[in-house]
Target: FAD-dependent pyridine nucleotide-disulfide oxidoreductase
Amino acid sequence: MVNTRRPRVLIIGGGFGGLFCARRLAGADVDVDVTLLDRAAGHLFQPLLYQCATGTLSIGHISRPLREEFARHRNVTTLLGEAVSLDPKLRQITALRPDETTFTLDYDVLVVAAGMQQSYFGKPHFAQWAPGMKTLDDALCIRQRLFTAFEIAETLPPGPERDSWLTFAVTGGGPTGVELAGQIREVATRTLANEFHSIEPEDARVLLFDGGDRVLKSFAPDLAAKATTTLRKLGVELHLGVHVTDVGRSGVTVTPKSGGPQEQYEARTVLWTAGVEAVPFAKHLSEVLDIPADRAGRLQVEPDLSVTGHPEIFVIGDLVGRDNLPGVAENAMQGGLHVAECIRRELVGKPRRKYRYRDLGSAAYISRGKALLQVGPIKLSGFVGWVAWGVLHIAFLTGVRNRVSTVATWLATIARAGRYHRAFMLGNDTAIEQRYTWSTGDQQAPPG
Model:
């Protein structure tokens, strides 16, 4: 009997890599059935998370439901779930539902685009006091902590306790840390400047800690120097060449890399952007498929991004551990398109091609009218860099409505000091509610 079943492509992760791969395989002209499994059921534009956290943009500006994205493409199915185990012999994935029950998915081709998570360098208890910046929950948590800190300070008399609530510590001098630090100072000096009676928000301290000798190490030295100058003019206090060795309720402890005594900084709001590591499913893949992984958990793959000995399994995006590929959105997008093209070529009997990454540059937003953009030999900063940054990010936003509403919001922000998405919730410990969470599933061992 002739098997007429269409090939089944299972994509794990709805980030840039998974989204672009699914888009390329969507439509009646591609003879495959695609299932896109994601733990949030939505695509998140991570590069703008900090703007959601600081009240400039709403959730809807930087995210879009995957079901809405693929509603017109009948060969694409989107599912909510988290991949927890793989059976390569059966070609089957076991996934976890938010209520902690499981289901299975079969595949002919597996594309792993699960991405990375925040790393606390072996000290996960830091997360209790220092949220990262990888998910919408992180952004909303930071928004809550940021604006609540000013509210609490308003109720306190002058003194050390009030000062600690008006001190914000950011760990990590990469783009996310620099962007967060700059935005917090802008909130303090511009957005909240005339809204309080007992405190002066512009007195808020923002401390930025990094182990290197300069911020934005992935940028050219002259651009990094301009970023340093801009941050200091904003009032951000830079502490370079130090490691954050402890985080607690009252603040952070840092240790100089060159030696010397530890220093304690009283800060009731600590934000962590210092590192990333592979998600638990990537570690499971490494063990099951015997794939070498680096210290951060990135997986070694073949030049076409497939797994050695398993040509039906691809790894894309931040999880790829070859050729020093950067953990940026552009690499994930290009990887997704490449794998989709490999699948399309094999459907018509053509060989796969090697993956070649094209560097589209780096960008960082510091404050209103101040941003950096580096594309090959082109280096832009200040207002010109800010405009170029905006054009670049808007071009990659998912969905036309997202682009239009985001542009409108940015224009309003330019014209006025207010941030229209500052609302936050404190929660209600007395309410009986069913809160769906992955916390238990993240900690449990894979079934089987």
Notes: The longest strand covers residues 242-248. The chain has three domains: 8-118+277-348, 124-274, 361-421. The domain at 8-118+277-348 is CATH 3.50.50.60 (FAD/NAD(P)-binding domain).
